[in-house]
Every structure is written in C-alpha cells, then in structure tokens.
Design a protein that fits this description.
This protein is of the alpha/beta class. It has two domains: about 5-145 and about 310-340, Medium-chain alcohol dehydrogenases, catalytic domain (Quinone Oxidoreductase, Chain A, domain 1), CATH 3.90.180.10; about 150-285, NAD(P)-binding Rossmann-like Domain (Rossmann fold). The chain is about 30% helix and about 25% strand. The protein is globular.
C-alpha cells in the first residue's frame, strides 16, 4: 500500500455518521451527515455507540428553550452540533492515562459531565470517569436508557427527597423516563409508593412497584386528602400551594421537570418563598450532577434486577427527528431509545 493510499484509508476510517444540527428549531433541523470521528484526549475514552436515548434536554437544547439558556448553549446558533447525552457501546480506543477500560469493553455512561454531548453518532468521546461497565444481563438499549433519567431520579429520591424506609412517596409523572426510575428507586429505599399517571399507564406503574396509582384524568392528588412525606414531580405542572397541600408536616417536594417556561419560573421564585412558611419544603432540583459513584450505583441496581429500564420505542439513528418529535408530545412510556448500531 502506497503512502497516499494509506493516508486515504486513514482519512476514510476517521469519518462517522452523526445526526447534526446547526440552527435552533424543531426536529426538522436535524439531519444525518458524515463528520470527523472524535479522538480521545488524555483520560478520555472513544466509544463505538450501539445505543443512545432521547431526553427532554435534547429537544430543549435543539429549540434553544428556555431562551436564557442560549447564553450557555450559543446565543444565535448552537455551539454543539451533535446532541445526545446517553451512550452505551464498546470501547474503541482510549487516551493516555486511562486504566479502567480497554478496547472491546462494553460500557455505558453519560456525556453531560463534560458538556460534550455527541451521543447521536456512531462514535462518541467522554471522560473515563463518566463510564461504567455494562452488566451482561442488560442490553445496550436498556443501558443507554439509564444515565440522565436514572441519575436524575436517583438524586431526586435519595439526595433531595432523602427517602427513608416506610415513608409515603408520591411520583407525579410516574410513567415517564424519570418517573419510571423514581418509582423503582423509591421502592428500593423501602418507601410506600404512589404513582400518578394517565389511565393507559396505570398497569405499567403498578408493574414496576407502585402500591397505589392515581389516574390524573379522574382524580387530583393535591385534593384527595392524602399526605406524603416526599413528592418527586417529573412534570412540574402544579402550583406551590398545591404541593404544600399534599405534603405532610416536614414533607419535601422536589421538582425535576416542567411543562412550560412560565410554570418553571414561578417555581423558581415561589418555591423557596413558600418554603419559608411552615415545615414543608418545595424546590427545583436543578440540573443533574453526573458522577461516577451514582452511575456505579445504578449499574449495581441494573445487575441485581432491582431497576429495570422501561423502553417505549426504539428508533434507528436516521429516524431521530421522529423520535424527538414523539418525545416532545409528552406521552412516552418510559424511555425513547436510539439504536445506533446493531449487535
């Protein structure tokens, strides 16, 4: 092979398919393109992506909403060309100093820690600390469903909610991506769990461990007289006074999602103010904090079967716009997964 042929072969090998976007907007701004494959720096791992998953964060960033977030994401156009914060796949190569992984290892993890994203592509790079080994009893698609939604649920239930055995815990939005993990984690920590969802999801929420389910189309959990020690709200569609009415003395409500920007800012302003009166506390969790310890905890729960990812639909990479559009509708049961590579 001549030097020119070798150079050409190397250049071809350094390309990959990725779903990219260069302007803010709806799913129509996403398009499949051949781009340069990333190279791992010191302490980083290059993963051949087998699966990723779509999160509300993806479509919020894609649309540049809320607008104030563009101060970080890019005011006029996005700074990041490839979305996707969850990955599961095989290690392709490692940078200098990486000791925990080698090529061929099956892993899963997040790209959020370094604010890199890039999971909607055939290859993605992230720090060694952002990955853990994939349990052998879990598929790539199941593993890819875990990082952002799973860690959000874990930090809401264990850190913010401080859930203890025997407590009464309510999960609003129990059938969604974060909600399905929150139900299972609250059960793992010994709580008596009530899940709020639509009629079609009642059996699903029961099947993942909720002792009680409330159909929000038929009943208002803030006005039925029940009181909870902890509320984890993955929807954020109620007022601070509603939450206080549903909390018992010393109760905690942590809000991890929102349905509209106006409601979000009201929670930012009124949640802390309402918490100053009485013993009930209400607040936004804020952004998830990616860390190796929490990811390892979720890996252990997956391996033990304590937590089973709920997957609604799986789309190939070239159908990502359809996947994001479906997720935006707000009726996904569990997670929407992107199958990047077969096998």
């Amino acid at each position: 092979m001549t030097a020119i042929e070798e150079t050409s072969r190397t250049q071809m090998a350094a390309q990959m398919n990725a779903m990219v976007y260069t302007r803010y907007g709806g799913p129509e701004v996403l398009h499949l393109e051949e781009v340069a494959r990333p190279t791992p720096a010191d302490g980083e791992v290059l993963v051949q992506v087998h699966a990723s998953s779509a999160n509300p964060a993806d479509w919020h960033i894609m649309r540049g909403e809320p607008f104030l977030a563009r101060l970080q994401m890019g005011l006029r156009r996005p700074k990041l060309a490839i979305l996707g914060g969850d990955v599961a796949g095989r290690v392709e190569s490692v940078g200098r100093g990486v000791t925990r992984f080698q090529p061929g290892d099956e892993v899963f993890g997040d790209l959020f820690g370094g604010q890199q994203f890039g999971g909607f592509a055939e290859y993605a790079v992230t720090s060694e600390a952002s990955l853990v080994p994939k349990p052998s009893n879990v598929s790539f698609e199941e593993a890819a469903a875990v990082p952002l939604a799973g860690l959000t649920a874990l930090q809401a239930v264990r850190e913010r909610g401080a859930v203890q055995p025997g407590q009464r815990v309510l999960i609003n939005g129990a059938a969604g991506g974060v909600g399905t993990f929150a139900v299972q984690l609250a059960k793992h920590f010994g709580a008596e769990v009530t899940g709020v969802c639509s009629t079609r999801n009642l059996e699903l929420v029961r099947s993942i461990g909720a002792e009680h389910v409330i159909d929000y189309t038929e009943e208002d959990f803030t006005r039925d007289g029940q009181r909870y020690d902890v509320i984890v709200d993955a929807v954020g569609n109620r007022s601070a006074s509603d939450y206080k009415r549903a909390l018992g003395p010393g109760g905690i409500c942590t809000i991890v999602g929102y349905t509209n920007v106006g409601r979000l800012f009201r929670h930012i302003l009124l949640g802390p103010l309402s918490s100053l009166i009485g013993s009930r506390r209400i607040g936004l969790m804020g952004t998830v904090k990616p860390n190796a310890a929490d990811l390892e905890f979720m890996r252990e729960r997956l391996a033990a079967g304590d937590v089973v990812p709920v997957i609604d639909r799986s789309y190939p990479l070239n159908e990502l716009p359809e996947a994001i559009g479906y997720l935006e509708e707000g009726h996904a049961r569990g997670k929407v997964v992107i199958a990047v590579r077969a096998g």
